Amino acid sequence: MSVTILYTIVTLSAIGVLAATILYLTAQKFKVYEDPRIDDVDEALPGANCGGCGYAGCRAFAEACVSKNELSDLFCPVGGNDCMTDIAGILGLEAIKKDPRVAVVRCNGTCENRPKTNTYDGAVSCAIASSLYGGDTNCSFGCLGCGDCVEVCDFDAIKMDPETGLPVVIDDKCVACGACVDACPRDLIELRRKMPKDRKIFVGCRNMDKGAAAKKACTVACIGCTKCAKECPFDAITIENNLAFIDSDKCKLCRKCVVVCPTNAIQELNFPPRKVKAEKPAAKVEAKPVAKKEKPAATNNEESTEPKN
Amino acid sequence: MLKTFKIGGVHPAENKFSAGKQIETLPIPDMVTVPIAQHIGAPSTPVVKKGDEVKVGQLLAQSAGFVSANIHSPVSGKVFKIDDVLDSSGYKKKAIIIKVEGDEWEETIDRSTDLVKQTDLSPKEIVDRVAQSGIVGLGGATFPTHVKLAVPQGMTAEMLLINAVECEPYLTADHQLMMEKGAEIMVGIDLLMKAIGVKKAIIGIENNKPDAIKHLSQLAKEYAGVEVCALKVQYPQGGEKQLINAATGREVPSGALPISVGCVVNNVGTAYAVYEAVMKNKPLFERVVTVTGKSVSKPSNFMARVGMSVSQLVEAAGGLPEDTGKVISGGPMMGKALVTTDVPVTKGTSGVLIMREEEATRRTMKNCIRCAKCVSACPMGLEPYLLMTYAEKKMWEESEDSFVMDCIECGSCSYTCPADRPLLDYIRLGKGTVGQIMRSRKK
Fold this sequence. Notes:
- The complex is a heterodimer of chains A (309) and B (443).
- Chain A is α+β, with helices and mostly antiparallel strands and 309 residues long.
- Chain A contains eleven helices and eight strands.
- In chain A, the strands form four sheets. Chain A has a two-stranded antiparallel ribbon. In chain A, strands 2-3 form a two-stranded antiparallel sheet. In chain A, strands 5-8 form a two-stranded antiparallel sheet.
- Chain B has 13 helices and 17 strands.
- The longest helix of chain B is centred in the middle third of the chain and has 24 residues, at 173-196.
- Classes of the chains: A alpha+beta (309), B alpha/beta (443).
- The interface between A and B is medium-sized, with 15 and 19 residues.
């Protein structure tokens, strides 16, 4: 009896040792070397797997960081500069610094500004609506309001405003991964430089029609009148295809363009209210001199803190 | 037992209210808008400029490439401007706007109604004449006809198929044209046969047009090799591949053209246009358009010039009814809802359908119940429910592997779905995206 038990133990141990040896040799033969730094970098990344860096996920980005051995064209928009500094520390490399960015919806075609001319009852998808026709208003460049951008956002940073029918970006949550930029068939969303106190100045319009047609479709359309470009002291504004564009890297938030815009197409967000002098009754006429008085001061301040390069 | 295609298909209510209504010629409006993109392929290049005097039939825009077509003036007058205007696609496209003055035709056009049967033109000359006259497929797809007639090297055409099916409900333009211009159509068919060098032609007509079948069969006796084939009523029999399958039993392989099974398919309207172009020297600038709908007081077939406003046609048919929900350019299955009736008639406008509000409203989408009705209805043997899901989930590779590019966008799946799912909307998105991916791969 005891002999049987002994044989069993010996045989099983022998099989165990043999199997272990085979496994060990196989593991040695087929071993894939992986840089241990990849795990470290992966650990330092936010783990959102959003694809904002241009790679398939955080792991792929970590592999790219290690294999390329330089970080000049690698940047994680979610982690930002802090995260890139950590990665640079792990790898002993130099990280590039980028200004934080935030998504901005360049359409202000609310129900009041841009009256509806027809009803869309097809599949609820901007991509489908856009491939079918110009949209339910006379503006064939504006927001279609089906929420493709909301659907792709992994960070809950963009919401539809039921009152205006337009998407609203929640600045604190937006990580500038660019998923919404790719999802929008009308190319309305732009990643702009994050300004202090989340202040923003941008042309809230993408209508490339001639001025008269654009204005007819939407009261706050950019008509390409070039007034803002002439007014801008920093050459930040360019006009192309009847449409103004403010370069957020050059803009110093002086707000001069906002005042001259005849259609209010240029939007200013998160600014304190302007001081209004109650002398003249007409709002438009009065706004100009006020702004002009106020502006140089603001401009000088901005310039002194942030010298133009 | 009547012939029809083998897989799928649906049979929607026919509602051919305008059947048997004489083709009426409409008065020429004061202004016409002629878009430069009226066909599949590259938009044409305008050869006139603002202020130019033009005559009826004068070349307005030159074909820009192999797959493209010439565009001729439908009226005489002065070019008012060349500008971007809203067309039936719902986007602004370039168009030539002409202010009408009188009705002066090019001298080369034979305006008599005499039937000309004999010609000594060579096949090459016929194709050239077709290309010069800017003829495109008038069934609705507007593919340039001269491209179809140029049989690629290494392939031989065995027969010509004439698509007189008109399977779309409501539309009667082709039907009425056959009844009134049968003799001319037969000459056109003869010319097409000569152009591609075949001895056999089959005219496919659905059984709901017995008078047309009888009329054309009578006329076909004079022409050797031309026969009329009566087909069972089934949508989408007017699809090229379905018609080939129905009339000949052949099956066009996935991704291939009809010529790969020896067939060239042309619409019956195109045959008439070919007759006019070759025998009468008249380029394509007018076509038959059906204006119809359940509430339309006077459903009609009009001979409309290209560039006329759709609203003029609607007015001529008794005006827009009060209960209008949608105005559709084309038929109810494949047509496109218009944003406004102020869009021009183009070479591809086969009909204007005015739908009542209750018919036009789309019902809300419910969950898929896996009944597979869409699979049985699909005439291409695809799985629409699966293709829709792929498009929803942006699974483009799987879409491509499931042959999304074979979809002919007939809408049978959406029509048949008991859960009212917008199957075709999503499949079209998949087709567009996969097409883009495939094109970028080739580069």
